[in-house]
UniProtKB/TrEMBL annotation:
UniProt KW keywords: Heme, Iron, Membrane, Metal-binding, Monooxygenase, Oxidoreductase, Transmembrane, Transmembrane helix
Family: Belongs to the cytochrome P450 family.
GO BP: sterol metabolic process
Cofactor(s), by name: heme
Bilayer topology term: Single-pass membrane protein
PANTHER family membership: CYTOCHROME P450, CYTOCHROME P450 26
Binding residues annotated for heme, in chain numbering: C192
Name listed for the protein in its UniProt record: Cytochrome P450
Claim: rRNA-binding is one of the keywords in the record: no
Lineage: Eukaryota, Viridiplantae, Streptophyta, Embryophyta, Tracheophyta
InterPro entries registered for this protein in UniProt: Cyt_P450 (IPR001128), Cyt_P450_CS (IPR017972), Cyt_P450_E_grp-I (IPR002401), Cyt_P450_sf (IPR036396)
Length: 245
């Protein structure tokens, strides 16, 4: 199916003059070596598309719970809205966001981090002990598998004060958070390579959402894990275009 799509996109770019910057596939098709040969093979394009698709559920969990927190936290929502209205004011109708615009969305990314702290899409992961480790009075022998869990540090009140409180400004000073404490994206050599992609898609989505709509929740705040967190009743919301408010 993805291969058929790639062939369709190739025809669009080569014969119908579609922009090579239209989407991920056309961008990858447009990458050329010095001798003008395609730089990315068809199989590599398939792998890229599948990677983005497969990992989409973590980003969608983040956005889902951000939408929910923003609906429940009017003061946080007001600051986010102001941040995005200021950016929107500098844009002509239909003009795209730029990298510079993304750097202005500092508070929104703190809201995202606080969402990830409280409802991490990935609950934890495995590591293998490379040598005997003594920790907290226990010996973990070399070769054992260890399961690290995100909430162990995210909900530890010696690291994040009042951990049950939704307080995005706690991320204002990154220096106050010890290394390997905020581990929503993991840590070390296997840290999530999709971090930057997730950051961009989240900021862009929230920008268009808050500048164009208001919303009200039509469900309670419960959720379960499967293993990604999912609101128990889904996320039904009443969405209203802002100009009509
Ligand atoms: C909010 C969104 C996301 C969260 C919270 C998240 C979280 C994580 C976590 C916790 C890990 C394990 C890291 C570790 O073991 O130290 C991981 C690994 C990974 N993530 Fe993400 N991720 C997100 C989005 C994405 C996206 C959008 C992509 C790709 C487009 C992606 C690709 C990957 C890959 C390939 C790995 C495996 C890395 C390896 O084993 O070396 N992630 N992610």
């Amino acid at each position: 199916m993805v291969k058929d799509l790639i062939r369709e996109k190739r025809v669009e770019v080569e014969q119908k003059g579609a922009s090579p910057h239209q989407d991920l596939i056309t961008c990858l098709l447009g990458m050329r070596k010095e001798d003008n040969e395609e730089a990315v093979t068809e199989n590599e394009i398939v792998h890229n598309v599948m990677l983005v698709k497969k990992r989409h559920n973590t980003s969608s969990a983040l956005m889902t719970f951000m939408i929910r927190f923003l609906a429940n936290e009017p003061t946080v929502y007001a600051v986010v809205l102001q941040e995005h209205e200021e950016i929107a004011k500098t844009k002509l109708s239909g003009e795209y966001l730029t990298w510079e615009d993304l750097t202005k969305m500092k508070y929104t990314w703190r809201v995202a981090m606080e969402t990830l702290r409280m409802v991490p899409p990935v609950f934890g992961g495995f590591r293998k002990a490379q040598k005997d480790i003594e920790y907290g009075g226990y010996l973990i022998p070399k070769g054992w598998q260890i399961f690290w869990t995100t909430p162990m540090t995210h909900m530890d009140n010696s690291i994040f004060q009042e951990p049950s409180k939704f307080y995005p400004s706690r991320f204002e000073s990154q220096a106050s958070i010890p290394p390997y404490s905020f581990v929503a994206f993991g840590g070390g050599p296997r840290i999530c390579p999709g971090y930057e992609f997730a950051r961009i898609e989240t900021l862009v989505t929230i920008h268009y959402l808050v500048t164009q709509f208001t919303w009200k929740l039509c469900s309670d705040n419960t959720f379960s894990r499967d293993p990604i967190p999912i609101p128990t009743q889904g996320l039904p919301i009443k969405l209203v275009p802002r100009k009509l408010c």
